[in-house]
Amino acid sequence: MLGQTITRNALLLALFALATALLLAGTYLVTKERIATEIRKAEEKALLEIVPRAMHDNSMLDDTIAVGPDATGLGLRTSKQIYRARSGEQIVAAIIPATARDGYSGDIDLVIGVKADGSVAGVRVLAHKETPGLGDKVDLSKSDWVLDFNGRSLDDPEPSKWAVKKDKGVFDSFTGATITPRAVVAATRRVLEYATENQGTLFGKTNPAGQAGEQ
């Protein structure tokens, strides 16, 4: 009798586990597409902060170029994507990932939008470990400091001025925190240099030397 009870309880437990697994699997299948859609919307929203809809008519999420740690100047530790914005057939901007490895508390992950004319469309810090109240001012949610990059290029300011004011450049630093803004300024300049050297890949142009840019 005891053996039959144990067997029956084991079968009931197994049936319950199977039913639960089927329910979870069904819920996953039903919500999988919805979750993917929401993630895509969130990603697109972040990109549109840098290159607004008025500037392009394509889906940047569907126009990408893979880029990895071997990309000179970007400082990446893993493979990521460059997103391109088009108006008709013309590429008007590229959003390029970069990592500033010389932050005060470690890596600072960024994306920098570069227009086809070589100017900055926008800079956003995606992840960092900088000191709250000091270095975290590179985050737009904490400060509008990154907005000073908008419209800048390798000609504005001149190369020697691509630095924080403490280093005789034009960009502000933060009281008590110079290392963090210095790292972001340098990373942004390297991305602009990368964009210039890879105009063929990014924008279908040739670089100033008349050679198609290669990634």
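the 2nd protein, sequnce then structure:
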Amino acid sequence: MNISARLTDERVLDVHCDEHRLIVDLMDGRTIAVPLAWYPRLLHGAPAPKAA
């Protein structure tokens, strides 16, 4: 068995922010959300760049 074999499709479908989280939707249906506090430049950025 090849341990580096890709078992899931990890391509990104969408990336967006809400007031408190950075959210990444993956092609395989999973969603990953992390606190914006982990990314201070995004947390303190203007709303327009966050929406892009």
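The chain has a mean pLDDT of 82. The chain is about 15% helix and 35% strand.
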